[in-house]
Design goal:
The complex is a heterodimer of chains A (368) and B (259).
Chain A (H helix, E strand, L loop, with lengths): L2 H32 L5 H26 L7 H16 L5 H4 L7 H4 L5 H23 L4 H20 L4 H4 L15 H18 L2 H11 L1 H6 L4 H27 L9 H14 L4 H17 L8 E2 L2 E2 L7 H16 L12 H9 L14
Antiparallel strand pairs in A: 1-2
Chain B lengths: L6 E12 L2 E12 L3 E5 L6 H8 L7 E6 L2 E2 L5 H7 L1 E3 L12 H9 L7 H5 L4 H17 L15 H14 L4 E5 L7 H18 L2 E5 L3 H7 L2 E6 L2 E6 L1 H5 L2 H8 L6
Parallel strand pairs in B: 3-8, 3-9, 6-7, 7-8
Antiparallel strand pairs in B: 1-2, 1-4, 4-5, 9-10
Helix pairs in contact in B: 3-5, 3-6, 7-8
Classes of the chains: A mainly alpha (368), B alpha/beta (259).
Chain lengths: 368, 259
């Protein structure tokens, strides 16, 4: 059998596998949608995972592919979430949402379709990122992390400030945000967002991002403008963080500024690290593992009776101990995250099953 | 000396001061079209600093650097590369985790006409195809095509040097700056490199300005040599003149006052 036929055979096999996977995902979502009342818990975990997957990939774009250690994600999500919320809360319900200080007349009667509001949220986040980028992107590594973290907190503080009560409803938060009507909405949104980011990463601009990550001086000597490239990556990442923030608002249906504390950025950083810095599929898998793991471990929060004796450790909060231990194990044994910088590929999967203990074949390496 | 040939690069009275240290003190030199010119000098003489002044990494404290008659003052390194100056580095700076092909392909983006939207939505297929074809072409010319899917850092040292030069050539330069291209090479590899430099000069119609310590290589192919010591130009001329210059011999073998 010639090598060409082998490759064609592999291609066909991979194509079939991809179709089966898509059918399986749609099938599962369809099944959950049809029985949404009995599976509401599972649906909420999956929807949250989808939202986190988008923001994790956006964080990976900046941290993993451009090599900028930015921790501003929560701030940009907050902007996207608030913009989406403000423009989608039904006009009729606004008096009851802004019951303390009233609503600013400029925005009182503007209601946008959800898609438009999400894009607007992304654009606002991207615009703010563009402004922040000018001073911040001149910094490197840890300094950049601290500066972005600071700006994210400033954004959050501004949102919570009483001066903006008539727009953001200050510390009371926003509620009555229209949620997802079915599970296919967040699925479609996250597939589109992640798909666009994957296209970007594999384009000539994605290659420039990677060049900057690998060696700034060499990148510059190859005619790449460092600042423009970093700014571009930062702005695009913030756009998608904003969109995912809007999705989070739709998922939660009520938000306040505390939702977007630094802890949210850490959650997302955790997802990116667990999945593998520099791997899109890693971030997606990480989003599902971390979100689902946190919920499934709730078992440890409930009192457990063994042979009439109550096991002493099983009490509320214990699951976070277990969760943290699991994370430490992952980080210790998979130092580069579950996926490293590799991307998912059927060839990789089949090779793994053929030789489970062999080191990963060359085909999977260096695809990032 | 070559009055009727056009000079590609010229430095006039360039001074580069870091605090109290003058790394370069009044350096004037020129590289003419199609020439191979070498800059030599003991360690710490300011050779790499001179390169950094040319490529825009440093802005000279005073003096002028011009390329094809254009003053390079205030032009950023990436713009200078676009004007047609490419360089390699003393300690190899490849994009180590990327493939050989991607390393060269990235350099090709310099002259691409696309933007982030057309690139993301794949509306730039023609540009992308052109860049890939040119990259494949260049790699074939350089005999690196077989290695195109290898990760750059997995290549042996000599090939990494070669790849770095290939990547510099991908930016379609007029002037190529080589910073110690033969560093760490054995005599046989150095001889191959010597022939290689002459070959690429003729093939791509380049002017070459290089820093080098291997005197065999320098004396064999340089048309003119500049000698730098403590930031000052102490000699210039053709290889024979330099070899017999007492000041140069003193700088290299160590004078009486400093080691």
């Amino acid at each position: 059998m010639g090598p060409n036929r082998m490759i064609n055979k592999e291609k066909r096999r991979n194509c079939i596998c991809t179709l089966i996977l898509i059918a399986a995902v749609l099938g599962i979502c369809g099944f959950l949608e049809a029985n949404k009342y009995s599976y509401s818990y599972a649906i909420s975990i999956i929807e949250r995972s989808m939202v986190y997957a988008v923001v994790a990939v956006s964080m990976n774009l900046v941290n993993g592919f451009t090599g900028l250690f930015s921790l501003g994600q929560a701030g940009f999500m907050a902007l996207g979430a608030y913009v989406t919320a403000i423009f989608t809360i039904p006009v009729g319900q606004r008096p009851s949402v802004y019951y303390i200080s009233g609503i600013n007349p400029a925005i009182a009667n503007i209601q946008l379709p959800i898609i438009v509001a999400l894009i607007l949220g992304g654009l606002v986040a991207a615009g703010v990122a563009a402004l922040i980028g000018f001073p911040v992107l001149r910094l490197k590594s840890d300094y950049l992390a601290i500066a972005t973290l600071g700006f994210a907190e400033i954004i959050r503080a501004c949102i919570a400030a009483p001066q903006f009560d008539t727009i953001t409803n200050g510390s009371y938060g926003l509620k009555s945000i229209p949620g997802f009507t079915n599970i296919f909405q967040p699925l479609a949104l996250s597939v589109i967002c992640i798909g666009l980011m994957v296209l970007l990463i594999n384009s000539s601009f994605g290659r420039m991002f990677k060049a900057v990550r690998e060696d700034e001086i060499a990148a510059e000597a190859m005619g790449i403008n460092l600042f423009k490239t970093k700014e571009l990556s930062f702005v695009i990442s913030s756009f998608f963080a904003g969109v995912s923030g809007g999705m989070l608002a739709m998922f939660m249906r009520s938000i306040d500024s505390k939702t977007f504390q630094v802890a949210l950025t850490y959650d997302i950083l955790l997802i990116v690290v667990i999945g593998g810095i520099g791997s899109v599929t890693g971030s997606v898998i990480g989003a599902f593992i971390v979100t689902a793991g946190r919920e499934l471990l709730r078992f440890f929060d409930e009192p457990l009776m063994l042979g009439g004796v109550q096991v002493p450790l099983f009490r509320p909060g214990f699951r976070m101990v277990i969760f943290s231990i699991l994370l430490m194990i992952v980080v210790l044994f998979y130092r580069k995250g579950l996926m490293g910088t590799n991307e998912f590929s059927w060839n990789g999967i089949f090779d793994f099953f053929k030789h489970p203990f062999k080191k990963k074949s060359k085909k999977m390496e260096g695809k990032a | 000396m070559n009055d009727n040939t056009q000079n590609v690069l010229s430095m006039q009275n360039v001074i580069m001061q870091f605090g109290g240290v003058r790394a370069i003190d009044g350096l004037s030199l020129e590289v003419n079209k199609g020439e191979i010119v070498a800059l030599i000098g003991p360690n710490g003489a300011g050779k790499t600093t001179a390169f950094n002044c040319i490529t825009g990494i440093y802005t000279p404290t005073s003096g002028m650097v011009s390329f094809n008659g254009k003053n390079l003052k205030g032009i950023s390194p990436d713009e200078i590369t676009k004007l047609g100056i490419a360089r390699t580095f003393q300690n190899i700076r490849l994009f180590s985790n990327l493939t050989v092909f991607d390393n060269v392909l990235i350099a090709k983006h310099l002259r691409a006409k696309d933007n982030v939207f057309t690139a993301t939505l794949r509306l730039n297929l023609a540009e992308e195809k052109r860049m890939r074809e040119e990259t494949a072409q260049l790699l074939k010319e350089q005999g690196l095509y077989e290695l195109k899917d290898e990760i750059a850092s997995s290549l042996p040292y000599g090939l990494q040097r070669h790849l770095e030069i290939a990547r510099a050539l991908a930016t379609q330069p007029e002037l190529l700056l080589l910073d110690e291209p033969a560093a760490g090479m054995n005599p046989q590899e150095t001889q191959e490199l010597t022939d290689f430099i002459v070959k690429i000069r003729d093939q791509y119609k380049l002017s070459i300005f290089m820093i080098e310590h291997h005197m065999d290589l320098v004396m064999q192919i340089s048309e003119r040599i500049y000698v730098l010591n403590f930031g000052k130009l102490i000699a210039q001329g053709n290889p024979d003149e330099i070899q017999s210059n007492p000041e140069v011999i003193e700088a290299y073998l160590g004078g009486s006052e400093d080691a």
